[in-house]
Amino acid sequence: MSDTAPHPIPMVDLTAQYPLIRGAIDDGLAAALDEARFILGPGVQAFEAEAADYLGCAHAVGVASGTDALHLALLGAGVGPGDEVITTPFSFIATAEAICYVGARPVFADIDPQTFNLDPDAVAAAIGPRTRAIVPVHLFGQPADMPRLQALATHHGLQLIEDCAQSFGAAIDDDMTGSRGVTGAFSFFPSKNLGGYGDGGLVTTQDEAIARELRALRNHGSHRRYYHDRIGYNSRLDELQAVILRAKLPHIDHFNDGRRRVAHRYSEGLAGRPGLVTPHEDGIGRHVYHQYTLLCDDQAGRDALMERLAAEHIASAVYYPVPLHRQAAFGGAEPVHTMNRNGPGCPVADSTAARCLSLPMYPEMPDADIERVIDVIRR
To answer: Which residues does the chain have with pLDDT short of 50?
Structure first.
């Protein structure tokens, strides 16, 4: 037996895809540096047009981060002080932070136990007289149940704002996530399905008036230099990040197919293992596996599995250990802002947070590493 420790398997290897896009990135960066138009330059404009075309949206507006994208998407949809916005408690905090940024109040509706996305029945139970919008998150790359959520929004006259931070390239029938809501918000954090080499974000809409408003909001409330129609923000997508994103965008379907390859091999190799539930594809949309997240029987089993993987130099992570309705920023265990289909609280989110575990996931993950992860878990 060799005394050499096995090589580490990271959650994501951002260097693996660089050789494929190195030429396009180097050429694009050189051109941007020669042009020296770094703020809302030609690269940003070109990326916005290309992203809008890919996503099937009339307009795409580049912003400085995914959190800013959510913030401006809510403002563009007209959400503001005194409004209530129904969203999921099982997401990164930015989803609910952005609701607070516009002066609205988040109301957390429980999640579906299989997809981890918003449960439409819980959303229906949470709708009240001050409800203005619904913000579904296409969590881990699995599209939310948009047909039912759209029907609810239409029936109650609510705005539907999509959090697409983890779902670039996911689709429902022929519609990409981000194309069905009044606005959609994307993140280009480096580890995302389409990631930059720093922060960046995008807001999508089919509405020309909203797009015009978003372009002003990201640029100090200005449509024309030094003329400011309202208080805005400094939230512009960086020209150099646009170069990176333009180099990656033509490969996004290939990258997502790679993620699905890894996910399906995990699911095949772990099928039927006692104490584990592998991710569910509900058939509503094409899952693009930003994360591969399984469930253990209980928290003790989850923590023991993490320790075993770590001992074998295999990374794993918990997304998310504390659901939003239990975060101190939103009042801790306060149940007033929560709802499931039967009453207050988010028991499915609570249970999922205690049992979930995400495995290494990136498009270029070698088959041998996938098999090693499976083997350690099976043992």
So the answer is: 1, 335
Residues 363 and 350 in one domain: yes
Domain boundary among 217, 234, 250: 250
Domain count, the chain: 2
The per-residue pLDDT for range 295-352, each reduced to its tens digit, is 999 999 999 999 999 999 999 999 999 999 999 998 865 545 888 988 899 999 999 9
Rounded to whole angstroms, the Cα distance separating 48 from 215 reads 12
Whole-structure pTM value: 0.96
Is residue 139 located within the same domain as residue 239?
Answer: yes
Which pLDDT belongs to residue 1? 45
Domain contains 358: yes
Interior/surface letters 276-292, b for 16+ CB within 10 angstroms, e for the rest: bbbbebeebbbbbbbbb
Residues 6+ apart with CB under 8 A from 364: 13, 16, 17, 258
Residue 183 belongs to domain with CATH number:
3.40.640.10
4 Cβ partners below 8 Å, 6+ apart?
none
Q: Which of 250, 283, 310 is the last residue of a domain?
A: 250
- Together in a domain, 188 and 331: no
The C-alpha atoms of residue 238 and residue 245 are separated, in whole angstroms, by: 11
The beta-strand segments (E) located in the chain are 59-63, 84-87, 105-109, 131-135, 159-163, 171-172, 175-176, 183-187, 201-205, 222-224, 227-228, 276-277, 292-296, 338-339, 356-359
Closest CA to 132 of 172, 163, 99, 164: 99
